[in-house]
Amino acid sequence: MTEDDGRMTDDYRLTTADKSIDICVESLSFTYPAGIEALHQVSLHIAAGESLALIGQNGAGKTTLVKHLNGLLKPTAGSVRIADWDTRHRSVAQLARQVGYVFQNPDDQLFKPTVLAEVMFGPQNLGWEAGRVSDQARAALLMVGLSQAASRHPYDLSPSERKRVAMAAILAMDTPVIILDEPTTGQDFSGVRLVGQIVDALIAQGKTVITITHDIDFCAEHFERVVVMAGGRLLIEGSSRVVLSQAEILAQTYVEPPQLIRLASRLEMEWMPLTVDEFIKHLPGN
Amino acid sequence: MISLQHVTYTYPGTISPALRDVSLAIPAGQFCALIGANGAGKSTLAYTLAGFVPHFYHGKLTGEVTLAGKPTRLTPLNELVLSVGLIFQNPFNQISGTKFTVREEIAFGLENLGMPRPEMQVRVAATMALLGIEDLADRSPLALSGGQMQRVAIASVLAMRPKVLVLDEPTSQLDPIGSREVFSAVRALMAQENMTVVMIEHKLEWVAVFADRVVALAEGMIVADGTAAEILTDETLLGKGIGQTRYTQAARQARQLGRWPGTRPLPVILEQAVQGFSKFKDEGSRMKDR
Asked: For B178, which of A58, A192, A284 is closest by C-beta distance?
């Protein structure tokens, strides 16, 4: 039997080395059991290797949308496809091999007695051999700056450190798609910088990185594409530079352009900068 | 209104102090922001000046803390809470869990104080309007999004009209304009009630716009104390985990290239940056005209 045949007959073996995972959301609507329609006919295609930020006011449907990408929620109408899988016909355990989801609140996710055990738990479930599990877990802890904390209890760490443990636990599974729900919340200045470096590194590895964030400056500096949501619908989407310059549209969903774009607009600059370097480069008079 | 003198505090079961020889006086009506890296002692300082240390968190406290003229060590917490409202970082910790609607949740504290019903209804309605959550009045406090719950938690404390309001990252889960509205609401109430505010906040742009004073902490000590313009442009603090706004970063980088006047203070808010950089905008358009 060829390897390809193996994949066809047993979806668990769709290997994580396969990075060409496209995500296709078509006319997705979702109504919570209480009757609140949280998503209304949302369509979105995310190509493998893209970096995408979902922004919008509280209650816009951002978290509801990403919970469809790893099958935690199933569509009320429309469909979500991960590569050629329809999420409706897949378990969360199957989808978790393709889509890693770091929750907003780490305490929803952590339950093991040591940081290392916590981070090894996911890879162990993937059935990897012990050496690979341990290597991946240690690499993930190094990435989030917590190598020194490997043998500590997660609850002896600060909330911002626990948040990074939760991130490492997902990174260790080496999924082609990673979702980060509000990764900078509660992180201080250097913590936010570290999260930015992690995002850049994941993108450089060719992974698809999707984030939900209220930190618009962080979004501008690290994500190429922005999707703006309001009231369960897509309001506007496109490149960060174009979308984050639309102050009037953003205001409809309680978002403001990032600091540097607000400054550049007031200075009537023609180029809307996403980073300090870009701002300096395009200052008039250069 | 608040005074700490040579305060050192060590949590139970730990060896190294979370606060080291902290002295700080905050006058009535001041909006004081506490900034610093995680683990620097910001929350501990907030709990200490509100009397939760030593009444709720025990451990070893030395030095003197007074709140509204009362030494916190000798005043029971149920008396202190009449003057001070504390808003926790995680709004879930603030919600009573015993009320069926947001309106009742916000009225909960006032009810406990025995406020007459008509007065209570007026107060609750005014507080909901201030925070823009009138539409949530009949919802269950436990079935809200993180951001909505955060606003309800803030409203439930603001409804008490405390003399001193202590907020620990009150907008961590709010959308950007929602955050600014909370700061505006707090500022409006300060003017109205001469309230004193101590706020822990990482969103430095709003610290710079709204706070009268910025106190920076590192390793349990106060490392800087002044206006936002002074503290948030202090290069020596960058290595201590104190951040800066993009306006300051951009101007600092421009200054190295001779594009921001060496004598002009670095900007911390948008307006200051616009003024400073406008000089170059004018030069640019003059060049284009030629």
From this structure: A58
Amino acid at B138: D
Q: Nearest CA to CA, how far is A226 from chain B (Å)?
A: 15
Neighbouring C-alpha atoms within 13 Å toward the C-beta of B238: 10
Angle at A139 (CA atoms; ends A138, A142), nearest 5 degrees: 85
| Nearest chain A residue to B42, by CA | A188
Domains of chain B (ranges, CATH numbers): 2-235 (3.40.50.300), 245-290 (no CATH)
Please, which residues have CB within 8 angstroms of residue A201's CB and are 6 or more apart in sequence? A143
Closest-CA distance, A157 to chain B, in angstroms, reads 10
pLDDT band at B90 (very low <50, low <70, confident <90, very high): confident
What residue of B is the nearest CA neighbor of A252?
B177
Per-residue model confidence as pLDDT tens digits over A153-184:
988 888 889 999 999 999 999 999 999 999 99
A253 neighbourhood in chain B, CB within 8 Å: 175
Q: What is the pTM of this model?
A: 0.89
The complex scores an ipTM of: 0.88
B107 class by beta-carbon count within 10 Å (0-12 exposed, 13-18 middle, 19+ buried): buried
